[in-house]
Design brief:
183 residues, VC0467-like, globular
Length: 183
Amino acid sequence: MSEFTSLSGQLLVSLPTMQGDYFSHTVTLLIEHNRNGAFGLVINKTLDADLAALLGNQIARCPPNITVLESGPVEQGRLFFLHTTEAMFEGTIGIADNLALTTSLDILDAISEQRGPDNILAGLGYAGWSGGQLENEIQADVWLVIPYMRDIVFNVPFDERPEAAAKSIGVDLNLISPTPGHG
């Protein structure tokens, strides 16, 4: 069996070779990556959506200042919360240093009661890869793999995230040809 290195907690930046695709000009945070496949959330495609309106009457006091992302093309009605770990909830999964994923709406109650995490993003949908698919895409120069950086997930303006992530490892996306290097 070949050696396997998990990329869980890493950032994937789409390279300019990926044009006209859902993932063109995106940064995806890998939540889980193993031999069976990968699961991640796109962290730079904002939706012009109000979380309270999306949830309807499910929650009485929904904080108004949570950015909602289109976090992937799969199950776009499914809601995920990426957040820092000052507060943890039932079913919360640790991803990287001071970073977690929660699907429980308890997080919204905690925020409205001033006991929630300092940083939070809401996302609809996820990105998924079958076993070996992501590795093949990385070998085909579709993705740059970047170590997790809290600033890129929570502080860098959304439209600047691909360039900022690439620059963190010394890569200028503007200098990469949109034509694949090899197939």
